[in-house]
Specification:
By secondary structure, this protein is mainly alpha-helical. It has 4 helices and no strands. The radius of gyration is 30 Å and the shape is elongated. It starts with a helix and ends in a 34-residue tail after the last helix.
Length: 137
């Protein structure tokens, strides 16, 4: 899920534009809206970071550029940061997707469509041996 899709789903859920929701959330104590907006922000930031590091890496490994010892450390650092940004984006996307799904309205099933519960007869209690009244030896 992208930050754009997340924004649309948050807007659909709350019935307002994201900018209006962000303004409203500032005046309220932290809650689900604040959490969703923070997740959206983190997802958008990760996407921006991916774009930045991908573009930087493209420049660093351009075919007309010489790659020496000094450049290799930059290439490795940029590739590591790109990998971190992708991991962050994927985690944020999974988390916000799960939260948004949990907040969705679930339709109630039609009572006639639901199977009738089966009634099982109660299991009789095991027989307890009667206590003997005879004096013990």
């Amino acid at each position: 899920m992208t930050s754009t899709e997340t924004a649309r789903q948050i807007e659909d859920l709350y019935g307002a534009r994201l900018a209006d929701l962000e303004a409203a959330a500032q005046d309220q104590p932290p809650g689900m809206l604040s959490a969703l907006l923070a997740m959206h922000h983190d997802l958008a930031f990760a996407e921006q970071s991916i774009t930045f590091h991908r573009d930087r890496l493209t420049l660093l490994v351009h075919p007309e550029r010489q790659i020496g010892t000094h450049e290799v450390s930059h290439v490795l650092d940029c590739a590591r940061r790109l990998a971190e940004a992708v991991t962050t984006r994927d985690i944020q996307a999974r988390t916000v997707t799960a939260v948004l799904r949990s907040l969705g309205r679930v339709s109630t099933p039609d009572p006639e469509a639901a199977p009738a519960p089966t009634v099982t007869p109660p299991v009789p209690a095991p027989a307890v041996p009667a206590a003997s009244t005879a004096p013990g030896r």
